[in-house]
Amino acid sequence: MMDRTFKQAIRISLCSLLLLAAGCGGPKKDADAAGGIEQAPDTMAIGQQSFGTLPDGREVTRYSLRNTSGMEIGVINLGGIITDWTAPDASGNYEDIVLGFDNLEPYLDGNPYFGALIGRYGNRIAGGSFSLDGQAYTLAKNNGENHLHGGVKGFDKVLWQAEPRQSDAGNTLELTYRSPDGEEGYPGNLDVKVTYTLSEAGELDILYEAKTDKPTVVNLTQHSYFNLSGDFSRPITDHMLTLQADAYLPVDAGLIPTGEIRPVAGTPFDFTQPKTIGAEIDADNPQISLGGGYDHCWILNGPDAGFRKVATVTHPPSGRRLEVFTDEPGVQFYTGNFLDGTLPAKGGGTYARRSGFCLETQHYPDSPNQEAFPSVRLDPGETYSSHTKFKLTTN
Ligand code: BGC
User: Which helix (H) or strand (E) holds 322?
Assistant: First the structure.
C-alpha cells in the first residue's frame, strides 16, 4: 500500500516538473510498449503497452487513462475490459478497486465478464430466441436454455479498434467494433462505438453508440466488479448502497424476469435509504434464494428524467465513494454470488464469493420477449445511445 502511494506521489511530482519543462499533453505511445515495463511518469498522456497475444497472433494492448490526481484506469482492447482502476482512499492510499487478472491468459479462460463491455445484449434473453416483425431469430444459448451477455462470443471477447485521444473532458479511449450480420444469431451489421473518458474529477464517463442496417435489438453495458476496500480478499458486504429505485423485477429459476414489477418497500430489495449490501443478502426470501443473493434488475426512478444519479456506494473503512449516473431505465445489481474462489486474484489469492459487486446500467433483461418493457429495438437510420458515468471520490 505504502509502495503504491509512494509510486503515485513520484508520478505526480515528476509530471508536474515535466508539465513545466516540456508539457505532458498529447496522446503518445510509451517507448517500452513491448516490454510491459513501468511507463513514463506522464499523467496527462495515455499510456500504451502490450498485454499479450491472442492464440491467433493478434496483439492485445493495454491503455492507461490517468488524471493529474494520480487516478489510473487500465483498459485493454480485448472486450474493452477495464483491467484495473487505481484510486485513492480517504487517507491518500492508492489501491486497485476493480476485480480482474494480472495477465491475459485468465481473461481468455472463463472470465466471468470482469470489467468487460457487454453486447449485443446485456443479461438474459429467454430461450435464446426472439421475434422482430414476425421473423424469429435464434441466438447462441450459453446459459442453460437461455442467452446471456451476447452469447458464446459476445462483445467482451472480441478485439476492438482503439483510438486514444485527449478531449476537453479528460483522457479518452474510443473503441469501435463492427458486429457482422448474424453474429451470435442477431440480425443486421451493427457498428458500435464506446467512448471511455476519465475526468480530472475522478469520473469515468461511458458513452455507448450503435447503428444497424437491419432492425435488431441492442442493450449495451459495462460489467466491472467493484470492491472499494482495495483488498480483494474482503467481501463487499460491508459496503453501503443506495439505489434510486422503488421497484425491481422478480425472476424465475433461470433468472429471467417474470414480467412482474414489484415494489421494493418492506423487502431485502429496498435500498432507497443507505443500507449495507450484506444486511439482508441472505434473508429468507424466495427471490434472494433464486439469485443466491442479489442478481436482479432494479427499475430506476425517473425514467423520463434522462441522465441522473441512480446509485451511491460507500465503503466506510476506506472512505471511498462510488456514484453511478445513467440515462438507462434499469440497473442489474449483482453481488458476485457465482464467484467461488477458483479464479486467481490480482496480486495473489483467489476471488471468493461476493468479493465484488456490479452495477450494470441497462434496459431490462429479456425485453425482446416482453412487450410491456421499454423497447430495445434499433432500426436502420436510428442511433442507439446510452450514457453512464461512474464517479469515484472519497469522504
Ligand atoms: C448476471 C449474473 C451472471 C453474471 C456473470 C450478471 O450480469 O446477472 O447472473 O452470473 O453477470 O455472468
Answer: strand 320-326
Q: Does the pLDDT at position 11 exceed 80?
A: no
Let me know how long the chain is: 395
* Mean pLDDT in residue range 96-118: 97
> What pLDDT digit, counting tens, does each position of 152-171 carry?
999 999 999 999 999 889 99
Give how far the C-alpha of residue 204 lies from the chain's centroid of Cα atoms, to the nearest Å.
10
CA of 204 to the centre of ligand 1 (A): 22
Q: In the annotation, is 223 catalytic?
A: yes
Q: With H, G, I as helix, E, B as strand and everything else as coil, classify residue 6.
A: helix
CA dist 196 and 116 (Å) reads 12
Q: What strands lie across the sheet with 72-76, from one edge to the other?
A: 47-53, 59-66, 72-76, 82-88, 94-96
Does residue 323 have an active-site annotation? no
Q: 272 CA to middle of ligand 1, Å?
A: 23
Contact 176, 191 (CB under 8 A): yes
Class of the domain covering 4-394: mainly beta
Cα separation of 124 and 42, whole Å? 42
Structural contact between residues 382 and 192, judged by C-beta atoms closer than 8 angstroms: no
- Locate the ligand 1 atom nearest the alpha carbon of residue 148 and give its number: 12
Q: Give per-residue pLDDT as tens, 335-374.
A: 999 999 999 999 999 999 999 999 999 999 999 999 999 9
Residue nearest to atom 8 of ligand 1 (CA): 295
Write the CB contacts of 117 (distance below 8 Å, at least 6 apart in sequence): 79, 80, 81, 155, 156, 160, 175, 194, 220, 221, 222, 223
CA within 13 Å, CB half, 46: 24
Q: Which mutation among 99, 149, 222 tests ligand 1's pocket best, with the greatest number of atoms within 8 A of CB?
A: 149
